[in-house]
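Memo to structure team: turn this sequence into structure tokens by end of day. - J.P.
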Amino acid sequence: MNKDLEKLTEWFRSNKLSLNISKTNYILFKLVRNNAFNSDHQYKIILTDQKIKQVESTKHIIIDQRLVS
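Reply from structure team:
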């Protein structure tokens, strides 16, 4: 995943975009069986030398093609 994030970072730079890493996080979606959900596992996901935080829930935004500056 970190290799893909490196490519994403380069794409952002190439397109003169930025990502606010302090507001970036990730969620693991898992199949829960018999209430045995174990969320103790933490992955080390890095973007521009900063660790991305794992969360259980988050807000999101939707951007559509009609967004114009």
